[in-house]
Specification:
Two copies of one chain form a homodimer. With about 300 residues, chain A is of the alpha+beta class. In chain A, about 45% of the residues lie in helices and about 25% in strands. The first copy, chain A, has a seven-stranded antiparallel sheet with strand order 1-2-3-4-5-6-9. A two-stranded antiparallel ribbon of chain A has the order 7-8. In chain A, a hairpin with a 4-residue loop joins strand 5 and strand 6. The interface between A and B is medium-sized, with 33 and 32 residues.
């Protein structure tokens, strides 16, 4: 570990902490009622985090903005998944999931993370994806345009590549549905011939900073839209699918649970409630049907 | 495939079908309101099933009794899990999960199954386990005594062995809790020096027939017990744990989803609703706390 590596790691960690603060403030300001409650925790093997939970807001029914910086001996399951030999690791990041009250406001998820191994390899990962209960084409185009703008500032290949990655990642195979309308997803962005680790960091910073303006836009725009029992029930069904994705497929959740991560922080992504109906009937031509038609890979929103 | 093998397979299959009928009738009679709705389905690779769903009953809020008999080329994931070479398979069984309205009535799960490979190996598996939202010691003793009686008719080693197997299997590792109070669980019961395949079948028949009297006993005994909002919320939290177990750990669910099983039939085990609260507060000394203390492995209920 050289001094400059330690400095970089510290810089990234402090920046993530600040990002958590800024996002929490923006969400509280826009919600206008609920405030985050913070839980500081320590990881027995090294490091810890601060999990911040919001609940019962005007707009946000339940959500979490988590920061963590953990280190120690790399769990065996991660080593074998990454095909690496024994090593220490350092991982820091910010994770967010927001479940709104109003079904017309989309669920959002963001994660930005930095990972470093004592063997010398290090990378960034993350992304933002949107899960509308009801797909609105204007909103979908707006969201993907913002993501594309952020990506384009760094490289024209980023948006198409990371958009496809999100389509493939946020896929509920047993339902043959995407979780939502995707967004961007990327992992293991190391330094290479084109990008230094500092370049990667600047990209991740821009992704992180894009979260609050994008989501508060949807909060403001959609929180007062009318809805009734049908929409509320459909929201519960979609939340059920969110649970299915997170518990069956999400790699972060699986690794977290497998490696004795802090369960409450890992599962802060769970919705406040969800429902399961057998063979849920969707009226052909309804808004629910329209949404289902758009939960597909490969839709070009921009 | 000899004629006697074909006969045995047919006998088992027909018996499972009849078991599904008998159990559905007993549950409908005891519920007194809801009736099962049947969905017949075919498996593209071979075979099919009939999934029967009950919902909105006096006592049963949502539940399913599924029968299936499927065959074909063994999916690669099963072959590698069982460390077997390429072969055809035949699998038939009955699966049940019942989620009651009243939190004082326990959730119950049963599975009995028969599996046969063209390579010659064949076995029975299954079990019954109980997931009370509130553990009642008398009920727990009653349930385990019934399971022990059924087992003891076949071999004194069965109950202790299969009870421990259930404790180990129905364990939510990331919560360090058992799903409920366990019961019996067994798998790969093939013919051996002590038991013929016909002996195994007779045991599985007794397990299957024990389901209706045991569960209708709890339905009748507990469905009118008083409960309030606290108990209803706790039920939703426990249902969340049920979802976590089924989607993260349950081998049947995982294999089913992995091998393109029929999603709606696999996930008929999901509760009608569930809730997730961050760091759910449990009043020390409350009935919820008492229940949690008993969601442990190794409790001797008989």
């Amino acid at each position: 570990m050289t001094a400059s590596q330690t400095t970089f790691r510290t810089t990234v960690t402090q920046w993530f902490k600040g990002l958590q603060d800024r996002i929490c403030r923006a969400l509280e300001d826009t919600d206008g009622k609920a405030t985050f409650v913070e839980d500081e925790w320590e990881r027995p093997g090294g490091g810890g985090g601060r999990t911040r939970i919001i609940a019962g807001g005007n707009i946000l029914e339940k959500g979490g903005v988590g920061f963590s910086a953990v280190y120690g001996k790399t769990p065996g399951k991660i080593l074998s998944a990454l095909q690496l030999g024994e090593a220490d690791f350092y991982a820091t990041g910010v994770s967010i999931v927001m479940h709104p009250q109003n079904p017309m406001v989309p669920v959002i998820h963001m994660n930005v993370r930095y990972f470093e191994m004592s063997s010398g390899v290090s990378w960034f990962g993350g992304g933002i994806d949107l899960t509308p209960h009801y797909v609105d084409e204007t909103d979908a185009r707006y969201f993907h345009s913002r993501m594309k703008e952020t990506c384009d500032q760094h490289h024209p290949s980023f948006y198409p590549r990371f958009k496809k990655w999100a389509d493939d990642y946020f896929f509920i195979r047993h339902r043959q549905e995407t979780r939502g309308i995707g967004g961007i997803f990327f992992d293991r962005l190391s330094a290479d011939d084109t990008f230094s680790l500092e370049d990667r960091f600047r990209f991740v910073q821009d992704v992180g900073e894009s979260f609050a303006p994008v989501y508060t836009h949807f909060m403001r725009k959609n929180h007062a839209l009318p809805f009734g029992e049908i929409e509320k029930e459909w929201q519960m069904v979609r939340r059920g699918r969110y649970v299915e994705f997170n518990l069956v497929y999400d790699k972060g959740t699986k690794f977290g649970l497998d490696t004795d991560g802090r369960t409450e922080s890992i599962l802060m992504s769970m919705p406040p409630q969800a429902q399961w109906h057998y063979n849920y009937f969707i009226q052909p031509g309804s808004r629910e049907d329209y949404t289902l038609q758009l939960l597909k890979k490969g839709i070009d929103w921009v």
